[in-house]
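Shape matters. Shown next:

___
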Amino acid sequence: MNNPFAQIGELKKMRDQAMQIQRLLQAKTINVSKNGVDVVITGDQKIKEIHTNNRSDKDIMEAVNEAVKKSQEIAAKELQSMSGGLGGLLGGMGK
């Protein structure tokens, strides 16, 4: 028989890990230079700076999209580091 209190403890542990990862992502900055556009974005996908250097909207859009993609890759790596991930916890809840 599963102990519901143990599952609550696991949920709290995962929540704490997620909050720690969020803080780590907020502290990371990614610098992207593309098509003459410079973008600074945080790991949690908040744009800090854009220097357009009088470039076209298309150039700006491509640089921002690349910055977002890089921040997503960093976030994915951090989330993979969570021990067991959500799958282990959720898989055990249905037993």
